[in-house]
Amino acid sequence: MPTATKMDLRHTQRLFVTANLSQGATVAATEDQAHYLLHVLRLRPGDVLRMFNGRDGEFRATLSSPGKNKAELTVEEQLRPQTPDADLWLCCAPIKKAHFEYMIEKATELGVCEIQPILTQRTQVREINGNRAYGICREAAEQSDRLSVPAVGNPVDLADLIDVFPKDRAMIVCAEWGTAVPVHEAFHAQELKNFKKAAIVTGPEGGFAAEELEALRKAPNAVFVRLGPRILRADTAAIAALTCWQAMNGDWKGAL
Q1: Which CATH number fits the domain that encloses residue 57?
Q2: Could you give the CA distance from residue 64 to residue 197 in angstroms, rounded to a whole number?
Q3: Same structural domain, 29 and 55
Q4: What pLDDT digit, counting tens, does each position of 169-199 carry?
Q5: Which of 163, 216, 223 minimizes the C-alpha distance to 192?
Q6: Are 204 and 120 in contact (CB under 8 A)?
């Protein structure tokens, strides 16, 4: 089989693993990963894929010892060193399952490093399946060429989030009216450009209650932004705000 170049590898399967990665190491795929590689993708010995673990960068690997329900992978050369993520959080109220899963998938593709569900007065969905949420983020990271998978926190009350919110991080609250600044004005302001860390905060279906907005206004580094002339669904608002931030202040600037 001809040796694949780095450019050729852009269209090979990527796999997130927890094992340490270094040239010459052997990594055992999980049972689910082995099933996917062998029975869905139908890979054979010597077939190439890419692996990453969020710590050691991305490596080329080959399938070396397939069995009926197991697969071992031989780690070859490093393709990319590990680089820091944009320090961008999404703090979002859980919403209906399909919309929430879509939101965290797209947030992963857009480069967030942490997803923190928040509970508000109007939050109807009070619990999330953390394992499933992390699995969605992992698959989105594999698909989008990321070198890491965002952390997914357990739901916390909005008041608790405000109490412990870091003073060195900008809090960008998506609001529909009131004194919220148009997003392009807010993101171009020097006030936000001084921050290297940011959190996009979005509410539930129906938005934040009035007293919650007042509490958010008193939070350190809170900036209220308005996302255009139309009322956006909660998942759309999160994706729109993340896109604007990455384009104007985040890691899209200067990207190849």
Answers
A1: 2.40.240.20
A2: 42
A3: yes
A4: 999 999 876 778 999 999 999 888 888 899 9
A5: 223
A6: yes
